[in-house]
């Protein structure tokens, strides 16, 4: 499960007046910073019990709420955080053409995929995309 952030290198190159290695390094750095910011957005929003469109997560079932209470993991709303392993495994990688946010490890990736079906958290709203765009262009040098 991953989110990709793509660029149009030719268009950016014209805007910046850069070429070759200098442009490649600048794009990679800006994409890397943008992906890290994207990861922060997802984690912060999820901690508040919000889905990728800003709505509240679907409530946990009574059975699961009882299970969480027995494990001393009681919270008033879903945060998709039981052990911290799933969100803790979220990571990024970037090159000069795109950045990716993904979950390291098959187990955590499968857990994220399952959670995303019930409570869509992995992605960005239009407003968040605009914020990430500003981060990207603000870090091009």
Question: Your description of this structure?
Answer:
- Helix content is 53%, strand content 11%.
- With 141 residues, it is mainly α.
- The chain has a three-stranded antiparallel β-sheet.
- A hairpin with a 3-residue loop joins strand 2 and strand 3.
- It is elongated, with a radius of gyration of 18 Å.
- 18% of the residues are buried.
- The model has no long low-confidence stretch (mean pLDDT 88).
Distance between the termini: 31 Å
Order of helices and strands: EHHHHEEHH
Percent range of helical residues: 40-55%
Overall average residue pLDDT = 88
Rg, Cα atoms, Å: 18 Å
**Low-pLDDT regions:** none
How many helix segments? 6
In the sheet with the most strands, the strands line up as 1-3-2
């Amino acid at each position: 499960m991953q989110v990709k952030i793509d660029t149009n290198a030719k268009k950016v190159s014209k805007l910046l007046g850069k070429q070759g290695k200098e442009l490649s390094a600048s794009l990679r750095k800006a994409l890397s910073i943008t992906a890290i910011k994207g990861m922060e957005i997802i984690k912060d929003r999820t901690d508040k019990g919000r889905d990728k469109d800003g709505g509240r997560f679907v409530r946990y079932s009574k059975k699961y709420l009882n299970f969480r209470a027995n494990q001393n993991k009681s919270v008033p709303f879903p945060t998709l955080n039981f052990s911290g392993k799933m969100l803790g495994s979220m990571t990024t990688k970037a090159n000069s053409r795109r950045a990716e946010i993904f979950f390291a490890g098959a187990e955590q990736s499968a857990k994220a995929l399952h959670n995303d079906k019930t409570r869509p958290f992995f992605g960005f709203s239009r407003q968040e995309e605009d914020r990430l765009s500003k981060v990207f262009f603000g870090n091009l040098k």
